[in-house]
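Researcher: I'd like a candidate sequence for this fold, 221 residues long. If you have to choose between options at a position, lean toward the conservative one.
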């Protein structure tokens, strides 16, 4: 069954470009479009979608608020936020609102398609090229180092702490496996156990929490 994708962007040309890329794939289909967040929220009440590509800055209702409303629903679609360098703060807010990841709008088509498939399969999309830059911009809002010993992390093993730090720096499972001399399957198993222990949905939330609690500091890679 094809992955059902819904497009949300206030620029019709952008939506047309995404539609062309997505519908070139035999395993995907575009099931609808919206020009703002409010229109998307209403349309998705009647249209079933697996993944929503959500612009951040739009009229009427922005992507952050729209993501929050969608993710509060039962059987909510996954949301991938599309942003630009100038709007990283909106992407961060959208991730906290429940998005499964974020990408730059000028991402190459193969990367966009891979992201849709990854999110649909239950993974999160944290673009390594964006993660560190995004979080560096929030350095002044992060808590003191004293919070690094937060009880949130006390239940993790030493190895799990290492993996959280690597994930928070935007590194892929393959990169983490190479750095720690383990297999990708082992890394994936560890990440799953970590998420279960700390009660998080995906690795995007793990990245946010690691920085917010001071477990990892911006620029510490």
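Model: Candidate sequence:
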């Amino acid at each position: 069954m094809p992955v059902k994708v819904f497009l949300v962007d206030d620029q019709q040309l952008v939506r047309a470009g995404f539609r062309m890329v997505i519908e070139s794939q035999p395993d995907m289909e575009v099931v609808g479009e919206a020009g703002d967040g409010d229109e998307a929220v209403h349309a998705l009440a009647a249209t079933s979608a697996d993944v929503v590509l959500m612009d951040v800055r739009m009229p009427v209702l922005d992507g952050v608020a729209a993501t929050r409303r969608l993710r509060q629903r039962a059987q909510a679609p996954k949301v991938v936020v599309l942003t630009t360098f100038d709007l990283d703060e909106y992407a961060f807010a959208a991730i906290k609102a429940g998005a499964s990841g974020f990408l730059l709008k000028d991402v190459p088509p193969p990367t966009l398609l891979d992201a849709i498939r990854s999110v649909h399969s239950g993974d999160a999309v944290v673009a390594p090229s964006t993660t560190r830059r995004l979080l560096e911009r929030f350095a002044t809002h992060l808590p003191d180092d004293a919070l690094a010993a937060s009880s949130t992390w006390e239940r993790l093993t030493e190895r799990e702490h290492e993996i959280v730090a690597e994930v928070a720096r935007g590194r892929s499972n393959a990169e983490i496996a190479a750095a720690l001399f383990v297999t990708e399957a082992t890394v994936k198993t560890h990440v799953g156990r970590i998420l279960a222990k700390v009660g998080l949905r995906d690795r995007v939330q793990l990245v946010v929490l690691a920085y917010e609690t001071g477990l990892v500091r911006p620029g510490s890679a």
